[in-house]
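Revision sheet: structure tokens.
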Amino acid sequence: MRFPVYLHKTEDNSWSGFVPDVEGCFFAGKSVDDALRDAFNAIDVHVESLADAGKAIPKAADIETHIYDEACQGGYWAFVEIDLSRYEGKAVKLNITLPQNLLSKIDSYVESHREYGSRSGFLAELARKELANA
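Predicted:
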């Protein structure tokens, strides 16, 4: 998930900012790159603690959602990519039944779309997308 982050230059020429979609998530750094690395770490720790507590992980909105917020004026926007699958817990093996032709089509699709890694990766990604729309 791509989280928009808002940055501004501080009086001492360092950078700080916050993640509008993750309440209480702030970051800072001596350079923009340092600040963005810290933003990644801040989001990672925040989301991990929410997941460990069984709380909902915030969804990232578009920058347009926040562009007129008072706290988001005069600075810069960037994105930080976070792989939310890391916070879903350990993998559990299960047995499911699918029609043979459907399974063949899934396997063929995964073979030509290696970004899914496996049949399980493909099915998990589809489930994530559907659940995100719920």
